[in-house]
Write a structure and sequence with these properties.
By secondary structure, the protein is an alpha+beta fold. The protein contains 16 helices and six strands. Helix 1 crosses helix 12 and helix 10 packs across helix 12.
Length: 372
Amino acid sequence: MRGTLPGSSLMAGKERRAGGYLLREKTTEFQKALLRWFARHRRDLPWRHTPTPYRVWISEILLQQTRVRTALPYYERFIKRFPNLRSLARASEPEVLELWAGLGYYARARNLRRAAAMIVHRHHGRFPATQRELLSLPGIGRYTAGAILSIAFNQPEPIVDGNVRRLISRLHGITRRRSEEYFWRQATAWIPPDRASQFNQAVMELGALVCLPSGPLCAQCPVSGFCEAGIRGIADRIPPPRSKRASQEVRLVLTVVECDGRVLLCTKQPMDFVPGDWGLPAAAIGPAEMAHPAAHALARGALRMSVRLREAGTVSHAITYRRIRAQVFNATLKVKTGLPRPAAGYDWVGRAEAERLVTSSLYRKALRTRSG
């Protein structure tokens, strides 16, 4: 099968038309080839079993900045705990964050809960089926709206993410920067109106399994005959590699202070990049700053008294682009007249309850760290 797609310099003049899109026959061949491949090679993913708007939405938000393999167990747990919009809308933020702990980008989880509540109250629990309504919800942008409308409602709405941009760039042999709108126009032109759901999933699947960022599997590609980059042997050079965001090293001190079976927690999260409303007393320190004096100052400020701290070890953790190294200090207070009254913003919580309240795996690791 030979052919070329819109914008390709290899296209014969008679195959071009206004807007640079393929003649209908070529587009139809491309669509059929991709859909045949998808029918045979699609992955068995749980959200594809029952592609309701709610399940498609949850899966798409989970898959932002997250690999499929990592997202799968989170999806299963999330759907089991919150099987529909109303159950999610009724949930508290700590309940939602507890299931999200470890995935990072926690605004996604907060927005899911907020959007579910808005759908229940504004739309009486009916999932919106128009782009305007979807874009008015927190956490839903053009891509997610297109995914929900096309996959769940079979509407001919485009989706453009990194996979789709890469696929379009290679099929067209694009070696220079194009506007974002260019990719949305191309993605729109491809969609078969009556099979938008399957087609958009096929495009994403091809980008995930075959048209890889590096080392594309061109010999296995069902639409290689349409690919200008493949024909020219330059697929592995398109698009050019993007510079990665430099990782940021973060040093923290954490204190685990216990008294009478209770743990001292912050009632307001001290680190804005760590999820949840509750956390352990924590402070960032500079590269050359001594941890022990910083931990003592932290504990003294929280308890309004000096305590004897013991170093319990170091906890390493990664959140988005941050690499965290936290030195943990423990203390056990023995008192005869009741719990010391902490400063504002701190409270004593039973250990089992503390494990539930701190949704961050960083703090959970620290809680389990014992001094020698």
